[in-house]
Write a structure and sequence with these properties.
heterodimer, A: 782 residues, alpha+beta, Phosphoribosyl-aminoimidazole Synthetase, Chain A, domain 2, 7-stranded mixed β-sheet, 37% helix, B: 223 residues, alpha/beta, Rossmann fold, 11 strands, globular
Chain lengths: 782, 223
Amino acid sequence: MTQDSATQGLSDLDTGPGPLQHQLDTVELAARTPDVEQPYSELGLKSDEYARITTILGRRPTTAELAMYSVMWSEHCSYKSSKVHLRRFGDLPRSEALLVGIGENAGVVDVGDGYAVTFKVESHNHPSYVEPYQGAATGVGGIVRDILTMGARPVAVMDSLRFGRADAPDTARVLPGVVAGVGGYGNCLGLPNIGGELLFDDCYAGNPLVNALCVGVMKHEDVRLAKAEGVGNKVVLFGARTGGDGIGGVSVLASETFDEEGPAKRPSVQVGDPFTEKLLIEACLEIFRDDLVTGIQDLGGAGLSCATSELASAGTGGMHVDLDAVPLRDSTLTPAEILMSESQERMCAIVEPDKVDAFLAVCRKWDVLATVIGEVSDGDRLTVDWHGERIVDVPPRTVAHEGPVYERPMRRPADLDDLQADDPAALPRPTTPEELAAHWLAVVASPDGADKSWVTEQYDRYVRGNTVLAQPDDAGVVRIDEDTHRGIALALDGNGRYARLDPYTGAQLNLAEAYRNVAVSGARPLAVTNCLNFGSPEEPEVMWQFAEAVRGLADACRDLGLPVTGGNVSLYNQTGDVPINPTPVIGVLGVHEDVRTRVPTGWRTAGETVLLLGVTRPEFGGSAWASVVHGHLGGRPPAVDLEAERSLGELLAALGRGGLVTSAHDLADGGLAQALAESALRYGTGARLTLDGDVFTALFSESTARVVVTTTDPEAVRATAEWAGVLVTELGTTGGDALAVEGVAELPLAELRAAWGATLPALFGTPEATVGSVPVGTVPTS
Amino acid sequence: MRIGVITFPGSLDDVDAARAVRLAGAEPVALWHADHDLKDVDAVILPGGFSYGDYLRAGAIAARAPLMQDVVDRARSGMPVLGICNGFQVLCEAGLLPGALTRNGHLHFRNRDQALRIERADTAWTHDYEAGQRIVVPVKNGEGRYVAAPADLDRIEGEGRVAVRYVEGNPNGSMRDIAGVTSADGRVVGLMPHPEHAVEDLTGPSTDGLGFFTSVLKAMVSA
């Protein structure tokens, strides 16, 4: 299935050979010609779905209607396979913090002092594989518009990235483009990138994961909703012109599995223009300030089809659009293509007639093109005209909200018992100090553990001047009020290895880690979002993984008392019959009453006491050690202990408020070994440490609910930890220029830094080499 | 004391520049690129960002904005002007400063905390530093490589117009490690690094950048 064949099928009907040659496919014509063959299957619709459209309309759909239904009923837009499972999130107890829940463009959370925060993660996996730079760039652009649509000023972005093996040739094609795309778009929009993930695994080789998060801030009274109300109100399309890019992006690209020999899907990828989006942001915020809209929706996946049908469906139901009014980049587009186009940087607003002039004036000020394309009408039909003829006449709810829903068959993966029985306890362990040190260096220097500066230096972390913490700190922290110092913290985590071994536990572990990362900064965790990346829902084993992950996440959110504010599902992440590891990426939002009490991750000062908070058990299933040293994935993931996470979170908040710790670092992938190395390398301060019990377990176990902190007042930390019921173990003292662990090694920081820092530049290029090779005076004189 | 901050379409660090002005004790005044109105400001800052998307040469279109004619006229009669990053690019394109900024040598956008040496502590924007002083402020750009013909570089150096230089590593391949230059009269300064991102302990790598904004207050008093 290709883009070419999709549009070919459409243009055949409107202009090409066949029974309707050179005839516009109008509603009237459709009623007269019930037996015309329509290319529904090329557009991604199943035959029973096509039959249902015919039943809804009482006739065959027109070409334009077929285009709309095909994109809106795609997996990507309709959530038809995931909906029955996602209800678990809606069934969670109502949280007082939740101002707007699932169903809108993004959930909205009360963060105090009259401020509301909206945040969401979205995938742009398939486009980023086909065209890495534009795929990733428009992924950022799309999620930023979702946040803007809620009435908020976007204030920061994050990115969670996964690629195939770091040394695979195709990773060298995809990764640099994705990173440049995330940076190119976000930097040009003026949004600081405050964190994320970068991980590698062979399972993502043909299906890289590019998940982008945006967070926005507004006052409670500024929340906007996507609905069209008030008969006679105008429908205004504003932003970029509509072109031929991204046609069928949600249906033929994001809702199908890649095939080895399939033709290129490049035309289904959109092209981004961050400059136009920046103008759109400023224009929208001025429009919101002056109260010029009654409803607003961004144009993302499924373009105008989505925006018009969703606005009408959520409102009173009636809308008329004159498609001739839509400003085009390419005058040869057919009406169906205009309705399906996913051209970026466009928004659709519902404006009262007497405010239209003011609305257009704001757009003119910002050089944003704005055009009235229709109005809210009586009744409950969405109608679209082209050259004076009616080409769409549908009940909008059937397009936007009443698409097909599937209870897909599910089956526990046949290999799961064997996988879980393959316990890493059987793997050879390092015994000598030399072996321990070698394994430590191997984990830290592995592509997953290595310094991520090669990536993060391509992102602007400073713009807007409110970034308090950013990568490599565990959470990104942003100040939202300069007078009260109120702020927010965000973390994104999604370990696919754990979820492969046990999707229910894996999803909970990812939530626990994001929760802990937010807590480590001193923030109070408040709400959850997610981006659920899985293989094909048509595979029962994938569907089982999905259902288990959702169930695990919902149960854990209930236990932690956190609402799920929304999310995104990305299915069909598989090439041929091999799906990716189930990868539920979980985002947690936290609140800082006063960001000045934030806790950084690194060690700055010699002579401070290093303490481990939490209990270490021998848990190596899915661990970085097993993966890096033995290429092994098997056994059970670490046990989840949400009660311990909550106690630890409360302790960290108390320690942060009291100024009792000088640093705190979460233990996750790579366990204590990774956390110690990162803490020491952050500011170049070493430590002298003694690890009790089995040193191997102490270093490489990935038991959860653990954090390493430094303090000048260990007694106060102990007393507070006792109050919270958290175990404290003293590890040693900061200082020196080595990580010295008794009985293991004295790792000079220079050696550690060389190993940790060299990995990504060695794989993806060393910018410094080219800088130095540009000698002074090489520009020729004339 | 009123210091204008110009917003072009695509300006990004205008809020940051305004905050730095406020923290330095002056009043920031928002200026709009399309107006011929400097609103009686005493000095002007051209902030960082991607004016007009930098789809042409960085700063080339903004240099021709209506308000820039007023800025150029006033600058020629001594009004202090500071261009940061994209603002520096605009000043070079407007002919107020020599040289040009091109794509970084390594072709990547680069954001890091950068050590600089103040070469001239007698411009309107650097009075509060000592000559030779080392400061650390963020650098973040994709087109920050300072270039000029060798003869021009010799002249710029000879006239002492290098205001700030990169030390401990050159982030973008700038010729002779030049991070910022000044006009002959020391009133107009442009630099690629971002002093406005180093004005608070909470959000910056240092508060070393504040000196640019406090300097100009004294320059205006003594002018």
